[in-house]
Amino acid sequence: MSLSLGTLASSVIQPRRASLILAAMATGLLVLPGLLDVRTVPIRRQAESPPAPTPAPAAPAVATAPAASQPTPGPEAAPLPSPAERPQLWLMTSVFDHGYLQLEVLPQDSALPDHGPATTGENDGGRAYLAPLLPTAAPAWRGIIGQLVVTDSGCQARVTSLALVARLTGDAAYAGLSHDFTPDDLRDQGGRMIAARLDGCAHDRYAHPAAAPVLRPEPLVRPALARAARRAMLASPTTTAAIAKWTEAALAGTWQEQVRWSEQVLRHPRTKATWVLSHAHLSPEDCGTPTFSLLGVFRVGDDGALTEASITELEDLLTIDAIVDVDGDGQFELLGTPWLGLDRVLTRSDGTELDRLSLPFYGCPC
């Protein structure tokens, strides 16, 4: 007799879970911590309605975990900020020990704004090209000069000027060059952008206007909700498909030994809704090793039940370094990095990419 991990996870939230767990233990199947906790939290799919109330049994076999503190009216009852009031977020980079906001990505085939002489050199383990924009260049961005911004660390700085920035890392030979990178090579083959220079805060990850703060959720300690989210993740078809990639590769060990889990229970600062985010990812140790990054998003109802908002495989986001609400719509955006950790990516919680700070790598990662 054998049981898959997905089958076991499904059985944990079914009435006959005790017999199935014992059978799974008899097979030697590894059970992740938290799956045998006797307290469970109801889990509903989006289309399901809350169950009709029934008389409470005299001696309930399973105790429902207490709900998070009662939410105030949800996103539908709280008016969205006007477009002018909605917060903005700019990804940041450091160039020659100065902080810059990425305002606009410039594709490789795009025309460059008029700029002055460039400075080039080593920069944070890579190479950088930096040239000030002429006063007539990038008129759409001139209004940002003088603006006060706040970074993710709380540092405050003002925008002083605009610049053309290009960055890359690696070996010129991998870029098809027979010589070292020249200034023109850096400009043409680097990740290019129109950037805003700050008078401080050189090494932070993102910034927003001081007058329009980005909304950051309040972390809560709710272990039962975190365990319930992980159980739902393990039982989902998305997770089953991801595990199959690992199984088909016939690697040594088990995916349970390699997967990294994290759960966060968060209260939205404006809507007061409580959410649970469960993230599971496998990072490749060698080239060709299967990898995946899965994110489950669940809303906590007034009755303490979790409603699945989404369980998604994030295509290009292995780490989640920050969770924010950029546009004030009551939903979360994610800031993290893909494999190699060179780019910084801003996505919606379903993995839709919103912005990317790209650092092209010329080399072999293996």
Taking all Cα atoms into account, the compactness measure Rg is 24 Å
* Span of the ends, CA to CA: 40 Å
How much β-strand is present in the residues? 25-35%
Largest sheet: 6 strands, mixed
Overall pLDDT confidence: 80
SSE ordering: HHEEEEEEEHEEEHHHEEEEEEEEE
Q: What is the 3D shape?
A: flat
Could you characterize what this model shows?
With 366 residues, the protein is α+β, with helices and mostly antiparallel strands. The chain has 3 domains: 1-31, no CATH class; 37-44 and 215-362, no CATH class; 90-209, no CATH class. Helices cover 15% and strands 33% of the residues. The protein contains 6 helices and 19 strands. It has helices at residues 5-12, 17-26, 183-189, 223-234, 237-249, 255-258; strands at residues 43-44, 90-95, 98-106, 119-123, 126-132, 148-151, 156-170, 191-198, 206-209, 218-220, 260-267, 274-282, 292-300, 306-313, 319-324, 333-337, 344-348, 353-357, 361-362. The strands form 3 sheets. Strands 1-14-13-12-11-10 form a 6-stranded mixed beta sheet, covered by helices on one side. Strand 17 (344-348) and strand 18 (353-357) form a beta hairpin. The chain is flat, with a radius of gyration of 24 Å. The two termini are 40 Å apart.
